[in-house]
Each structure stands twice: as C-alpha cells, then as structure tokens.
Request: fold
Amino acid sequence: MRLLKQLFDSNRAWAAEILGRDPEFFSKLTRQQSPQYLWIGCADSRVPANEIVNLLPGELFVHRNVANVVVHSDLNCLSVLQYAVDVLKVRHVIVCGHYGCGGVQAAMRDSRYGLIDNWLRHVQDVMQEHQKQIASLDGETKRFDRLCELNVIEQVLNVCRTTIVQDAWARGAPLAVHGWIYAISDGLLRDLSVCVTGPGEIAAAYERAVKG
Ligand code: CO
Reply:
C-alpha cells in the first residue's frame, strides 16, 4: 500500500531496457535537455504525450491539464510556455486535444463534479462561442467531437495571443503553433490545419479551422 512496489519494479525494468539500447542514455540526459517541442495536452491517462508520438525522455516538454485549456491568467501553463519558448527555444508548440474528452463532455452536459466545474467554464465559453455550428450538427456524438476540435482551435488562438509567443515572433524566433486531436479509438493523431507561424497568420488560420 505504501510502497507501490509494482511501479518501482516496472521503473527498474524500463530503465534497464533503455540502458540496454544506449548505455549513455541517462548520463547524456543529466547534462541537458533540448526538446524541439512543447506539448500542451489533456491530463487524461489514455493520452500519454511521449508515447503517442514515440519520443524519448528529453525530446518533448509537456504541460497537461484537464481538457488542454490555455488560460491567459494561468501562471502554471504560462510559465511552462515561457520557459519552453524563451529558455529551451522550442520550435513547435502543439496543443493536442482528444476525442472522448471527459472534461469537454462535462462542460457540454453542464455536469457538476465540484471545483473542476469552474475550470471547465472555459470550455463552456468555447461552446457558447460556436453554439450555432455545434447545434447544427446531427447527434450528440458529432457535437461532442466538434466541441473537442473547436476547443483545441480556441486554445491555439490563446497560445498565439500570449505575450510570450507574440514577443518570440517579434524578435524573429522560428516558432510554429499547431492544433492536433488524438483519437483514443485508433491511437492516431489528426492535424486540425490550424498551424500558425507568425502574427499575420492568426486570423486566417483560425477562420479556416473554425469553418472545418
Ligand atoms: Co481529456
């Protein structure tokens, strides 16, 4: 109960397997990290960032929260973004949502779970923003899927509007912001075609992606 032996056992097996492939792997990692990508994803246990894109420790900087929301006053997310962009100098920020997101579903159904309802209010704002489009879709599954997608698109917009990304672009840093969605049902990622590489692209990319 106190020791979670199983997890320590599997950790040792995992580390041994990595060392079997590359005896220097961990010693190289202690010297530095130089990831090219920042992943902003959902905390859902079925959407493990590194595994989905088959990247090793050191290759992906990660921030996860319920429903992959980027809020302009969230010091946690903003700190991750700022460190990734300014210090690690990542080239890509990926906002990755997923179909079947419990957070998005709770927002859509206006379910009550407690404190988290306040966090999911941000997803309800997304729903309100695109109420007409969502209501025009046939059936709850389609509406739910679309809200999962629209939530990603809105969060891409939020990332692009931060002072961090705006300043990076202003100084000419090569930085692309992407919106992806993952399907738990087949393990595959889909690009929502909302890639933004500069402030002049935001409006058109957003409009295009929202139209779908
Ligand atoms: Co989720």
